[in-house]
Design goal:
This protein is α/β, with parallel strands linked by helices. It contains 11 helices and 10 strands. A hairpin with a 2-residue loop joins β1 and β2. The protein starts with a strand and ends in a 13-residue tail after the last helix. It has one domain: TIM Barrel, CATH 3.20.20.100. It is about 40% helix and about 15% strand. GO terms for molecular function: oxidoreductase activity.
């Protein structure tokens, strides 16, 4: 299974996203079973946020992780921009830890930029790391200019990851962000790596070349899309599903390697940008 090194730890390149999970009581047991199936299939990274369902996702994740050893899980959550200040961040983190039933996060991400000065947010993230409540910190929804600004700040280069939207139909990161992150040894966490099942009109699942590659590998279309995302050595994908079967297929996609010919065919159908693109955000 492909691995990514993040915050000094080697983890499988396929993790578990939890956006939209925990919001429907009738789905709770199904969603818990899916998360647990993903971990049992080899996933270590579980990604959530205080924003997701206003804490309901964190609560669900906390329950789902109970059967597992805490040290076997790489747990990520995120702080909202309005809570990313020196005055509010620690209380926000404490609430996340309580919902997650843990006393530390492996990685705490600044969810997206708001009105709090970035220098203040970075200083508070650095301070919280010294308390042991977070083992490392990073950012999310940062574009190239944001990353460059971050790196110029005291302690800014201590960020261990950036989480952005990235999939075959949204390749803006290929122009500047991914090359910059590779040069600075900053892993990418790719959210919505299968374009939310084509709900945004990218037609990835109905494109003949994607279907042909899936058939050649006896894989699902979604596995091909995920394998494409993690073709880079320092990219971690966090697909979300409430289905046990789909979860197991997602995790197995980390073992699928696309050939140079297949990657070239996908590039032809979904070309990388030749100029700077606006950062895609959901």
């Amino acid at each position: 299974m492909k691995q990514v090194k993040i915050a000094g730890q080697q983890v499988p390149a396929m993790g578990i996203g939890t956006w939209h999970m925990g919001e429907r009581p009738a789905q709770r047991e199904t969603e818990i079973a899916a998360i647990q199936a993903g971990i049992s299939a080899g996933a270590r990274v579980v990604d959530t946020a205080e924003m997701y369902g206003s804490g309901k996702s964190e609560n669900l994740v906390g329950e789902a992780l109970k059967p597992f050893k805490r040290e076997d899980i790489f747990l990520i959550s995120k702080v909202l921009p309005e809570n990313a200040s020196q005055r509010r961040m620690e209380a926000s983190l404490d609430a996340s830890l309580q919902r997650l039933r843990t006393d530390y996060l492996d990685l705490y991400l600044y969810h997206w930029r708001g009105s709090v000065p970035l220098s203040e947010t970075v200083a508070e993230l650095q301070r919280l790391q010294t308390t042991g409540k977070i083992r490392s910190w990073g950012v999310s929804n940062f574009d190239i200019a944001d990353l460059q600004e971050l790196w110029a700040l005291p302690g800014g280069d201590q960020a261990v990851a950036n989480e952005d939207l990235y999939h075959l139909g949204s390749r803006g990161l290929d122009y500047a962000v991914l090359p910059w992150q590779r040069d600075h040894d900053l892993p990418l966490i790719a959210y919505s790596p299968i374009a939310q099942g084509d709900s945004w009109g990218h037609h990835l699942t109905t494109t003949p070349i994607v279907q042909q590659i899936a058939q050649a590998h006896h894989a699902t279309i979604y596995q091909v899309l995920l394998a494409w995302v993690v073709r880079h050595p320092q990219v971690l994908a966090i697909p979300q599903t409430s289905s046990v079967a789909h979860m197991e297929q997602n995790i197995a996609a980390a073992d699928l390697t696309l050939s140079a010919t297949e990657l070239a065919a996908l590039d032809q159908q979904f070309p990388a940008p030749t100029s700077k693109q606006p950062l895609d955000i959901l």
